[in-house]
Write a structure and sequence with these properties.
By secondary structure, this protein is mostly helical. The chain is built from ten helices and no strands. The protein has one domain.
Length: about 230
């Protein structure tokens, strides 16, 4: 399941790159760049991307749960050190893309509302006022959809941080209030990055230097009553 993290990053950042290229490229009118292949923007490619992303997300969460159950703090910490940060391009593009669309709707509604106040024909004025009201509503709808979609793909990336916190709490190496604060932070945009940096700075040296080796070795001991093989 180790490849699942790389697959997740490639699928999301790749999608952002294709969308950004398609958005800013205008058939070579601004610069001589080739068009995006049709198959890459087809409906079939979209659904393949969705299924691949869903499978990768399930594997990512499953791996985080497994590592927490095995108290594999080193692996969790290593993953935390790059996984979330590798997806910053995707989150940045999502903010720009959906934010631009929402802003366009809001401005269009505001312009329609302004034009309606000076329209000489009543029906034109009423139509402009209706559009002026619907514009902001559409902007809020686009913003809500953008945040919702981005948050869905954001949640699996928090699995490793939360799993690491669960192990720390199980070992009583972190207090209840701090544990709660970090878990909540891992469920919020931007705050998750701050929490991740704090955890890396606080625990990296201890975990990577073998300070938790004694605790991890408990998982490797034979069960009580088990018969060890003799050479």
């Amino acid at each position: 399941m180790r490849f699942s993290k790389i697959l997740y990053v490639v699928l999301l950042n790749g999608n952002a790159a294709v969308m950004a290229y398609s958005t800013f490229h205008r058939d070579g009118s601004l610069w001589p760049l080739p068009d995006v292949p049709d198959w890459l923007t087809s409906t079939q490619a979209f659904w393949v991307w969705v299924v691949g992303l869903a499978v990768a997300a399930i594997l990512v969460v499953a791996e985080a749960v497994r590592d927490a159950a095995r108290s594999e703090t080193r692996r969790l910490l290593r993953t935390m050190s790059w996984f979330k940060f590798a997806l910053i391009p995707f989150y940045g593009w999502s903010f720009i893309y959906f934010g631009t669309i929402a802003l366009a709707f809001a401005m269009y509604g505001a312009m329609a509302l302004f034009n309606g106040t000076s329209a000489p024909v009543p029906i034109v004025a009423v139509g402009s006022w209706v559009i002026g009201v619907l514009g902001p509503l559409a902007a809020w709808a686009v913003a809500a959809i953008g945040i919702g979609v981005t948050y869905l793909v954001f949640l699996p990336t928090s699995g490793y941080g939360i799993a690491f916190l669960v192990v720390l709490r199980r070992r009583r190496e972190i207090g209840g209030p701090a544990f709660f604060l970090h878990v909540v932070s891992h469920l919020l945009f931007v705050a998750d990055l701050v929490s991740t940096v704090i955890l890396l700075v606080t625990y990296w040296k201890k975990v990577m230097s073998g300070g938790d080796a004694k605790e991890e070795s408990r998982d490797d001991r034979p069960a009580v009553g088990a018969v060890e093989a003799t050479p």
